Amino acid sequence: MDMDHRRIQHGVGMALLIFLIWGCNAKKTYSVKTETIKVDSLEQIIPLSDALVKPILYTHVSGLSQLSVSESKSKFVAVVLPAILVAKIEITNLETRLNELEKKKRWKDQDSAFYLDFKKRYKAISLEDLLYRIGTLPNSIVLAQAAVESGWGQSRFFLEANNLFGIWSFKKDEPRVAAGVSRNEKTVYIRSYENISASILHYFEILGTASAYSSLREARHAETSPFALLPHLENYSERRSSYTELLKEIILQNHFTHYDQYRIDPDYMIRD
Predict the structure, then answer these.
(1) Global pTM?
(2) Within 13 Å and on the Cβ side, how many CA atoms surround 107?
(3) Strand, coil or helix: what is 48?
């Protein structure tokens, strides 16, 4: 599955993603048109006026530090939330395709290749284990972590690499930039992404693979409350419980749970 999105002239790209809506005991699939905008002016960032979100992927977002605190935060959420929703669509796509494979009696070569690719990426031991590992988190938690790890969109990692979560790079053959620090006299690198939605997808993948988040994976199958899930993220930072308390404080102070029910605007979805 390609996480990147095709681009056309003037810095605006369009991609088709499959979005699944469950209801009325039936599964419906839709194509969702996403638009990629290279931000030359912060005025290009569309405010979130209601719970229906236009699927825009913003790149080259800079200048938030020049705004007031409240305006900067508002712009940050308007940039990040659509990217979260697009990433969640891709996770839904992955889960759906794997569920379809689970029902198949015979797999084609491309089915096997698809499964083996994601089995390796998620360090799974079986299809059942892979489906268990795949998942997301409430929008409020992702927004809070993105705010902390990127300094509300003002960190160099975010500005230069679309890296919301300070994810490191250990492979020479993947897109990355030097972090500006070294360990044991060796340069440290961080991952670079084409857009922040790809960064969020990788973040979800890390939560699905690392042993440090095994309790989180178990909890999210039983819990939907962001405050019940937060304690299971303490291994994300050396600050442990102080880190999760900070996330809770950010969620509460900024009313981030308000965004947990936000979804892609149906006007941008086409039924297949």
Answers:
(1) 0.88
(2) 16
(3) coil
Cβ of 87: how many Cβ atoms within 10 Å? 24
How far apart CA 247 and CA 192 sit, in angstroms, is 24
Distance between CA atoms of residues 146 and 79, nearest Å? 11
The answer to whether the beta carbons of residues 44 and 61 sit under 8 Å apart is no
Rounded CA-CA distance 134/188 in Å is 28
Residue 144 within a domain? yes
- Dmax (CA) for the chain in angstroms is 60
Residue at token pair 């600050």: 239
pLDDT tens for each residue of 206-241: 999 999 999 999 999 999 999 999 999 999 999 999
CB neighbours of residue 257 within 10 Å: 17
Whether 150 is covered by a domain: the verdict is yes
User: Do 167 and 190 form a contact (C-beta atoms < 8 A)?
Assistant: yes
Domain count, the chain: 1
Domain residues for the domain of 22 are 9-271
β pairing state of 269-271 and 263-264 = unpaired
The long-range contacts involving 175-178, CB below 8 angstroms and separated by at least 24 positions, are none
| Closest listed residue to residue 81, CA positions, set 163, 227, 167, 197 | 197
Q: Tens of pLDDT along 172-209?
A: 889 999 887 767 678 889 999 999 999 999 999 999 99
